[in-house]
């Protein structure tokens, strides 16, 4: 699929709410012209002050969520002067309109011919499976041989910060921890998945049935930050990261990405409060011992190129941005940033995948096949939808109670592509490594993943594949 998460206030499609936020930095009065209630994020310089609620209320705000571990507070206010007032507090490091992320959509609409030659699941037939179709998992497990060494274990937990999980899916129910899962979406009471993205991600990590994940005996736990539709506020995601870290998970997967535009006048010192929150939460999780794996995003952009960033905004929004752009969490220090490979090439990553200096590692995320790829690289703006072959995408679990995803007619499974599909392969590898070596620190796990990667592309580290394509069999047999 290609739903990696995007911000827009953000990773394949940006949304207007963030653009409005971004342009607050261009025109100092742009966000103060009306009295509509807005959400704000406040990053304090240290611990939350004992009187933070009082000072926020005096400025005309109402505290919606506080995350004391990282000094972050989410606030709503209909006071046009709230932001300028709260920024005057000497204990505040940054305060801005709170950014919102959205599920990253397909690079192009999935309106091609759906796959119909994969048999529908027969839940009563234990001998029916789709293992041979799993080119992606087979490649990074050496044709499933890594299972003979280590499949993971139920004591090792991979947190899936996403849209939730179908806890009743036959391939997931033995490994999905419903009791320990949490939702951070206001108005919801559970972490069941009504979008499909989170269940697909979870299957790549720990499916054990008709499909097999990288670690078919790992535990996956949902930290739901996205609903069936709509976005997720930064504070929900920050809260989820901190909660997962406090719960002691070994690995966190965030198939989330997106553009954070930062000009010199966007927030203090060019940082928005949302970016500060992301940075602090991830560092908190790493210090707690969690390996944090993230997707690089699906915009075919060089993350290390100022020109690429500027061109992106110019092409999509007609705006020339003088300051730097960033993709988060892909460019947050300490994370493992994953680009996406395809089935048919060891020389080029998937056409949509972001690349550049921030890439640590790559993993199979699928694509539309070599015919489409060749046409796209000749002219990215051309219309080649009828040249796509969805068989080259990654097959994984999908909520059994939702209608089939558009790329096939399958119930309970879906063919998707994106860096959202690549990142959980690396998260699964990290989980199996932790199961085999629970004493390893996040840095040691990351080092082993890099050192044991299959060296695709140019010899050694390169901007497309990073250290290469991650491989759990190589990691488990490394000397």
Largest sheet: 7 strands, parallel
Radius of gyration: 21 Å
Known CATH architecture of the largest domain: 3-Layer(aba) Sandwich
Q: Tell me the number of helical segments per DSSP (H or I, 4 or more residues long).
A: 12
Q: In which order are the strands of the major sheet placed?
A: 8-9-7-11-13-15-16
Number of strands: 18
CA(first)-CA(last) distance: 36 Å
Question: Could you estimate the helical fraction of the residues in percent?
Answer: 10-25%
User: CATH first level of the largest domain: which class?
Assistant: Alpha Beta
Unreliable residue runs: 1-33, 259-270
Q: What is the count of structural domains?
A: 2
> Helix/strand-derived class?
alpha/beta
Describe the 3D structure.
- The protein has 479 residues and is an alpha/beta fold.
- The protein has 2 domains: 84 residues, Peptidase S8 propeptide/proteinase inhibitor I9 (Alpha-Beta Plaits, 2-Layer Sandwich), CATH 3.30.70; 374 residues, 3-Layer(aba) Sandwich (Rossmann fold), CATH 3.40.50.
- It contains 12 helices and 18 strands.
- A 7-stranded parallel beta sheet has the order 8-9-7-11-13-15-16, with helices on both faces. A 4-stranded antiparallel beta sheet has the order 3-4-2-5.
- The N terminus is likely disordered.
């Amino acid at each position: 699929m290609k739903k990696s998460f995007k911000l827009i206030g953000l990773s394949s499609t940006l949304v207007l709410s963030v653009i409005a936020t971004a342009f607050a930095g261009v025109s100092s009065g742009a966000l103060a012209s009306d009295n509509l209630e807005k959400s704000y994020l406040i990053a304090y310089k240290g611990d939350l002050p004992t009187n933070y609620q009082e000072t926020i209320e005096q400025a005309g705000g109402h505290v919606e969520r506080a995350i004391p571990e990282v000094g972050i507070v989410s606030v709503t206010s209909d006071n046009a002067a709230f932001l300028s007032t709260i920024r005057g507090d000497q204990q505040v490091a940054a305060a801005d309109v709170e950014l919102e992320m959205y599920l990253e959509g397909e690079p192009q609409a999935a309106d091609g011919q759906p796959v119909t030659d994969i048999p529908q699941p027969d839940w009563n037939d234990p001998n029916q499976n789709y293992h041979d179709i799993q080119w992606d998992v087979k490649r990074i497990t050496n044709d499933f041989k890594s299972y003979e060494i280590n499949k993971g274990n139920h004591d090792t937990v991979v947190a899936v910060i996403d849209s939730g999980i179908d806890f009743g899916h036959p391939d997931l129910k033995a490994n999905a921890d419903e009791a320990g899962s949490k939702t951070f979406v206001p108005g919801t009471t559970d972490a069941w998945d009504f979008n499909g993205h989170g269940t697909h991600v979870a299957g790549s990590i720990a499916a054990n049935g008709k499909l097999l994940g990288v670690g078919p005996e790992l535990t996956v736990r949902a930290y739901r930050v996205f609903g069936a539709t709509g976005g997720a506020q930064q504070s929900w995601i920050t809260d989820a990261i901190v909660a997962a870290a406090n719960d002691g998970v070994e690995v966190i997967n965030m198939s989330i990405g997106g553009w954070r535009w930062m000009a010199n006048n966007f927030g203090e010192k060019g940082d928005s409060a949302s970016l500060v929150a992301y940075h602090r939460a991830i560092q908190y999780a790493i210090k707690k011992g969690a390996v944090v794996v993230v997707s690089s995003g699906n915009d075919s952009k060089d993350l290390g190129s100022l020109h690429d960033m500027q061109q992106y905004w110019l092409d999509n929004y007609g705006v020339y941005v003088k300051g730097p752009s960033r993709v988060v969490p892909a460019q947050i220090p300490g994370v493992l940033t994953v680009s996406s490979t395809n089935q048919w090439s060891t020389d080029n990553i998937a056409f949509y995948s972001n690349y550049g200096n921030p890439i640590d590692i790559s993993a199979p995320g699928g694509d539309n096949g070599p015919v489409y790829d060749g046409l796209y690289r000749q002219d990215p703006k051309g219309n080649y939808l009828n040249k796509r072959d969805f068989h080259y995408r990654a097959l994984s679990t999908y909520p059994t109670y939702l209608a089939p995803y558009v790329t096939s007619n399958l119930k309970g499974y879906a063919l998707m592509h994106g860096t959202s599909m690549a990142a959980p392969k690396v998260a699964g590898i990290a989980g199996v490594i932790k199961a085999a070596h629970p004493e390893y620190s996040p840095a040691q796990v990351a080092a082993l993943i890099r050192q044991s990667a299959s060296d695709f592309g140019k010899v050694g580290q390169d901007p497309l594949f990073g250290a290469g394509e991650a491989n759990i069999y190589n990691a488990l047999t490394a000397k």
